[in-house]
Design goal:
The structure holds two protein chains of two kinds. The radius of gyration of chain A is 17 Å and the shape is elongated. In chain A, helix 1 runs antiparallel to helix 2. Chain A has one domain. Chain A is built from two helices and no strands. Chain B is of the alpha/beta class. Chain B has a single domain, classed as Alpha/Beta hydrolase fold, catalytic domain (Rossmann fold, 3-Layer(aba) Sandwich). Chain B is built from twelve helices and seven strands. Chain B has a seven-stranded mixed beta sheet, sandwiched between helices. In chain B, helix 2 packs across helix 3. The longest helix of chain B is centred in the first third of the chain and has 14 residues. At the A-B interface, helix 2 of A face helix 2 of B.
Chain lengths: ~70, ~260
Amino acid sequence: MPVLPRIDELLEAVINGYEDVVRRSCDLQRTLARGVPFEPVRSILDTTADFTRDIAAVQLSGARWLLDS
Amino acid sequence: MTSLHWESTGTGEPVLMITGLGLSGGAWWRTVPVLSRSLRVITFDNRGVGRSRARLHSYTTEAMADDAATVLDAAGIERAHVYGFSLGGMVAQQLALRHGERVRSVVLGATHAGGPRAVRPRPEVIAFFRRRAGMTAKEAAQASVPFNYGPRCRRDHRGRIAEDIRRRLAHPFPEQAYRAQMVAAALHNCHRRLKRIEAPTLVVHGSEDRVVPVANAEILAEGIPGARLRLLEAAGHLYPTEQPDIDEEIARFFLEAR
């Protein structure tokens, strides 16, 4: 009989998956920023990557907090 | 734009030092001379502090870990040992998780994993940190002594404490940066991911730490696979001042972790 994963393990997997997506998105934005030879587009892309990372970090911290509670 | 000031001392295997709340890289002044006898020691000012500047004031330990990785890039270092203290220890956890391939080994000093399982300081300590926002740098440095140092150090090593304060006041930091770092510490949460830290880890903590209660060191050591725990009897939060011999032990840990 198959063993069903616990709900917190599933939620953790979803959170980890979201973290990976955010990471890839930030990496992509930074790669694009490096490829752009002119300002302010380069800085805007870099700043957007920072915002994406920091907003997601707050969301992930909160989600993991709820999971641990 | 964000610009980070960093310094390199000594030669050998690189060690990246990540300092605590509101402190500049210069706060490692007791530790750097000991470690740099056998290692290349990289210190830096966290964003917004000392000679580093920040584009954004919305700090997270994730952002600070990425800054630390940028310092390694600038220093031309592929992999380094990492020593994080207090808030710097939280950043070191994030660095080991986000950039694990760059971390050879890690020392987590007087820090915690965050999340709801973290053991909070007593109410009077939390009340002090709230009051601290309204103090001048000099007032805050003096008022924090009973919280930062253990009773034995306050009794036997007043000169060391005075020297710490003198050096801290020589590198004032903007209140905005301090508050942003407080938010980063409050949001920090690596508890569930400790098991993913693969680097050899040493957890160091003073048994009388009032700022980060010692139970947090046990949580870290239990959560990180293979981590070692070194408790310093009668030491408070700023154990490098109280028991400077620990620096020799930490240097040996890094050299053996190669």
